[in-house]
Write a sequence for this structure.
């Protein structure tokens, strides 16, 4: 069994204001998660705004240093534990790739988007020029885009949904074991969201990539996940197989989340019949 993602005793305390009057904010409060599988999986982290989801994503992506704790990805310790053995940046990025909430913030408006893909192919995947172009074409095709339609274009020449697909293509180039996607559809037109959600499902099969899907939307979480972790105030209050968590929630907070989405709840009840 491969440890796809494991967090142990993860804590992050931010301090608001200045000493001695600063107020500690416990963004992550002892987060323990362990997903072991030989097959790629989609794990959703759901929770309301401020529950610590983005902080968790950033710690896993090594963009934020945790106050304490440890993260293991694909059997390798990537965060925590002083000393040697942790992958350096390029190696890390070939294992873990990010997708952010706002694709327009992920790309500079002054740079063509294909230059990012090309850079990932040459720097992270270490391909030569021709190999890189092939990899870029292939990755774009996987997200339903053609290289000729993307080449030489700047971010503002795309819709949010298209640009998010470009950032997914970029994330796929190193063939990462896991993609961490923080609210990847919350800024996308509602009518286009399912394209991306369905894309995640097919990439799990085609690229054998696991996905940590972070969202406040239980309906899409239920639709694509193998596992669901429910976060509240910096802690995981419930974790399990998606169907089990949502059909038989143990924690009051999970029930509360479910009750706040009447339409999807009806769908689950229909399925139980
Ligand atoms: P979510 O993504 O679930 O909305 P966040 O991880 O963004 O949650 O935030 C969790 C908590 O940490 C919130 O109370 C937020 O205000 C606080 N927080 C996040 N980032 C910072 C920061 N850079 N400085 C201080 N507090 C922060
Ligand atoms: Mg967030």
């Amino acid at each position: 069994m491969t440890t796809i993602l494991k967090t142990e005793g993860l804590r992050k305390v931010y301090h608001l204001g200045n000493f001695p009057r600063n107020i500690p904010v416990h963004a992550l409060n002892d987060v323990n998660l362990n997903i072991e599988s030989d097959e790629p999986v989609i794990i959703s982290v759901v929770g309301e705004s401020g529950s610590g989801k983005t902080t968790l994503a950033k710690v896993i992506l090594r963009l934020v240093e945790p106050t304490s704790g440890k993260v293991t990805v694909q059997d390798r310790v990537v965060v925590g534990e002083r000393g040697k053995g942790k992958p350096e940046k390029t190696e890390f990025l070939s294992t873990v790739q990010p997708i952010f909430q706002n694709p327009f913030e992920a790309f500079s408006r002054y740079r063509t988007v294909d230059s990012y893909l090309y850079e990932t192919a040459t720097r992270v995947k270490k391909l030569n020029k021709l190999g890189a172009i092939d990899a870029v074409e292939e990755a774009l095709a996987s997200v339903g885009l053609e290289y000729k339609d993307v080449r030489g274009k700047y971010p503002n020449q795309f819709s949010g949904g298209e640009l998010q697909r470009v950032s997914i293509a970029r994330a796929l180039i190193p063939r990462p074991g896991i993609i961490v996607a923080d609210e990847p559809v919350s800024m996308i037109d509602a009518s286009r969201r399912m394209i991306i959600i369905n894309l995640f499902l097919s990439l799990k099969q085609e690229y054998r990539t696991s996905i940590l899907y972070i969202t406040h939307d239980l309906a899409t979480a239920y639709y694509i996940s193998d596992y669901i972790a429910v976060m509240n105030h910096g802690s995981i209050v419930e974790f399990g197989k998606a169907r089990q968590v949502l059909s038989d929630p143990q924690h009051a907070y999970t029930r509360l989340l479910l009750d706040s989405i009447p339409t999807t709840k009806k769908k689950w009840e229909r399925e139980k019949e």
